[in-house]
ubiquitinyl hydrolase 1 (Clytia hemisphaerica), 1077 residues
Amino acid sequence: MPSSSNNNKLAVIDWKAPTCEPGKCRSNCRRNPNCFTNLGEKFWFNTIKESFWVKEEDPETERKIENGHVGLKNLGATCYVNTFLQLWFTNKPLRSAVYRWHNDIPPTEIVNEGEEGASKTITLSFGDDSTKAICGNLQFLFSLLQYSDRRYVDPSPFLESLGIEPNEQQDAQEFNKLFISLLDSSLLAQGINIIDLQFGGTYCYRTKCQHCHAVSDRPSTFYELDLNIKGHSTLHKCLKDFLKDEVLDGDNQYFCCHCQCKRDATRKIVLQKLPKTLNLQLLRFVFDRQTFTKKKLNNSVSFPDTLDMNDCVELENKEDGIYKLNAVLIHRGLSANSGHYIAHIWDEEQGVWSRFNDEEVEEMKSKTLELGKEDDLEGIENKKEKKEKRSEKEPGHQSKNSYMLVYVKNGEESPSSINPPENMLEIVAKDNSFFDEWVDTVKSKRNEKLSIGSERQKEVQGLFSRLPVRENDSDYDWISTKWLRRWLSTDDGPVPPIDNTELMCIHSCVDPSKLNLLKRVSGTTADDLFNKYGGLPRFKSEALCKKCEEFLKRKKEFFNKLTDDLKIFAKCSKTTYKVDSAKCYWVGKKTLKQMKQLATKEFMDTYGMSNSAATPTSTPTTSSSRTPVQKTDDDANDKNNNDSQDGTLDENSSLNLSNNNNNSKKAKTPSQHLVAFNEDIVCLDHGNLNLQSSSRILISEEDWARCLEYFPSATSFASDTPMCIECINIQKSNEEYKEVEKMQALEQRDCLPFLFESQNDRTAKLQTMDNGTFHVIPMSFIQNWRRKIKYNKLLEEEIDNSEMICEHDLSLYSAEEIVDEVYKDEPEITFIDEGEQNKLKTFFKYQQPVTVSMIKSSTTNGNGQTVYETFYESQPTYCKECRSLRLAEEAFDMKSYENQPIYVQKLTEKEQHNYTVDESKKNTDDEAIDELVEISVTGSKAFLKHQKREFSEVAEFVPNKKFKNDTSENARRSSRHRRKRGEYIVHVNSTHTLKQLKVQLLTLFSVFPLEQVLTFPNGYVLTEDDKELGELGVEPHMHLYLSVAQPDKDSIDTVPPGKERTLESGFKGTNLVSVGK
């Protein structure tokens, strides 16, 4: 057992300290192995919520509340359908009519297993007949809404029968018109005339001639009234505007049958018969002819609870004109292309308003309709607007988001009892049984997990209470505090086996220096813990290492002495001794600075502790020598409670030998840390005193003897020790070599002045030559030679053109391609003439020489004019097979890139008018794309293989400039891209789609993606938004033209993108417009 009186680190760790009482310590006492507070035990001794043990929600939350309504699942963007389904369901006459629809062939029941952990559900198949599928699924959906035990049901089969895409935003009012019409025709086929009886009304268009005053009536049937709300604040004004006179004059004159000519006239709508259920559509979604987009009108409209229509229609019984508000349909959102649909519907049986919001159906506490929060949640109400009193206000309600009002004729009686067909009741009952089975299964799993959790809590409470060692009990174990924290933690997953390996010293016993990472646990409790969780090694009470105790004692003494000696060594840098001083010795300056680390390493090596956990680090940048453990709240207290309290030097601090007290701002690199004493003054090759006299200082014989106490095997270098003779001879040889190298470099500078010529001067010089043979050399060779010759050094490399040669020892490039590359602004190769070639050969060797011969000839045309032509031949000639493979590889590589620039130029209206897009060149087939790629490959691009290529514009070579002092017609032109007016650089990846590119251009040019027309310079049009840019042939540094599509004012029905949902595409292609046609 360790003695508490020992003057070592164990004196700080009092393993015999009493057990801390619960709640007394603010954090766990790491200096007390008997402290078990704040290890995570508080959680286990408090009430634990069920949600900790069970992640699944209580299945009863998925059950419909008693006397409540069933919701409908939102499948993405189907909230507009859900609101109308709930509205139609609550209309009892309509629901009764749907129940009366019958199918001669019973539907096929399909049991869906559902996703993992979900309840089984039932769907019905009605064959290939769309009408039967629509009416049958609507009947089944109404049956579920009436008798299902679920909180909400899935309307997917109904939507699939209609052919509606659930993720597309659609027009809610258009959906209502189309479906009511479809349902009417389907029910009339079986003699059920409910739509006309319930929603049908009549009015006539009354036209009066202003000349003969003849009146003409054209009757019409309506199922809803479309009311204009723009500029109107009350429902009464909207109705008045609907019924007002319209003047027909000018080009819109009316043809009078009595006058037999066109006359000025007035026309108005005259209501004749009102329906039992009056649907009023508030036209909030209008088409803006200026922007060609659909927008929403957010002005507030007030409407009453009781609507008196007697002012709008002449009725014999005035009571027939009194209507009661039954439903309000809301669109929450500022835009016509985003937002959410909900419905407020009056529950006649419960006598309350209900709010239908997809899966959530809320019964309003108040019996009056509350719509204020629907506007407030949008954040569009103005605070000043709330304070201002409206000059005109109807008693009742007002809303900025209501788009449909439903009124029911006052006193209209509804069927008291409505039940689905028997077969539907049986299917709903079966679906409810599936739901009940799922609820019972989930409850059983939850109860099982709760039982396991309760047992786990009781077990932890019992074991934790028995952890402390009783007084005078000699049977105990040492267990890692880290594992105890993991055992008491709330992390998911099983508790790992007990792991005490990090607490073990090199002698396979408990390391005394790590008692702060251990807890002393009762032996019987430790038996239970090891039996349940297992683990190794197990340390009993006698496992504390005696050898490490002795080492810690020696270590303490060592650092006490080193602390005093380091103060003396610090003064050595301030004391100056002459070389001829007697009894002085050389010591490295770095050695003195790192004396503490070097001495510590020597001490550890002596005791064989270099690799143990107790070894202090040899680098001054490490802040702690202990094994890293889980950081706890008491770490801050430990920083002030360490060995420095005993007057010792922290074994990880560094010695500052400079006169400046400020810490050096320059961070030390690992190469500055010495491994051995005086390593910085020893010649590594010969073991003698090195030539760097500035790296060492002289110390006295007394200080040297003090160094030998820490480094007894160190080599002594007295003040009269000569420097290494061999190193001196090598240094002289190096100086002679540098002088010779300098002379040879100056000779090359004088003989090869053409290698200093700029690119413009070089190309201008080549233009003046008529015929001749030119030799190819890489620009990389010239650049490397310039860098060396600048410092009078020689370039030791060959002139290598092997990257231009294929495996058949032929050229990969044609002569024309080589010439084009030479005349670039930044070429990768250049030409030299025969004389320059001979000069180069005197200094450098050639690998794979490549030459190009230029032959100029002249002919006379039919007009007597002299025409000059230039031909090129390369040696070796180019390999057709390998060149084709190279072009194919480059074409493939150009389809795969990341973060590369392309140039997009927006055409002005004038340029767009002059720039005609060839519709026949739209890149909708692979042949067009392949042709485009071939054009781009043959253009100006990177030359040598395995290097980055530089791309020019597709399908065109832009003559940007001529070279200096060049007036010839054959002047070579730069292929570097020149920024144009109205052009932007866009960085893209080959995997980006055309749609993503258009979204980027939206921020640059403020043109909506649907209006963007992107074309290549050769006229090809990019049309497929879902394709990747690489597939479309878009390559780095390519130039694209952007023009704005001219909208068709008669047919446009789209809006700017960037919204959360897909823009509505109408109901084309769905069964809403195809069934029955």
Observations:
- The two ends are 99 Å apart (CA to CA).
- The mean pLDDT is 79.
